[in-house]
Amino acid sequence: MPGAELVDPVPYAPWWPWVAVAIVVAVVAWFVWVVRSTRAPAQEPPSPSPSPAPVAPPAPRDPRDPYAALRGTTLARLDEVERRYRAGDVDVRGANLEIRYVLREFATGRTGVDTSAMTAATARADRRTRPLSTLLENTSMPTFAPTSRARLSRSLDQARKRVRTW
């Protein structure tokens, strides 16, 4: 085989290593950009763990009822739920969800116990939140059942009565 001579391989062009370095730098820069753009700013301090809401301050106008201001605010919010229901902004289920939310906020302000995720059984177990348990049970069916014949007026009446007497 005299015609077949060994020939050295052709070397790579000198710019290929620079292309490889540029690709690596671009990938690293992209990762840094993704991490920075999807994370919260570092200067924000972490939020403290949730603590129970403080008991509402006493109302200055009525020395016999320290929760008069809280009662008035809660009753006004219940009136707003009724107004929104009558206007057709929410259905029975949505209105009962709002009633539960308003009652839980009232109970938190009244007792100082965080009731935002409290079930009726948990409320019944704690003597401070026991008055809330019945209302949570009564509003559970229209809130979570697939269908319900519950009347919103009954839920509102019970809620208002509990707010006025507790």
Oligomer: single chain
Structural class: mainly alpha
Q: Roughly what is the average pLDDT, rounded to an integer?
A: 82
User: From N to C, what is the helix and strand string?
Assistant: HHHHHH
CA distance, first residue to last residue: 109 Å
Overall 3D shape = elongated
Helix content: 55-70%
Which percent range describes the beta-strand content? under 5%
| Rg from alpha-carbon coordinates | 32 Å
Poorly predicted tracts of residues? 51-60
Task: Give a count of the beta strands, DSSP E runs of length 2 or more.
Answer: 0
Structure annotation, total helices: 6
For the largest beta-sheet, the strand count, sense and barrel status come to:
none
Organism: Cellulomonas xiejunii
Protein name: DUF1707 domain-containing protein
Keywords: Membrane, Transmembrane, Transmembrane helix
Features:
166 residues, 6 helices, DUF1707 domain-containing protein, transmembrane helix
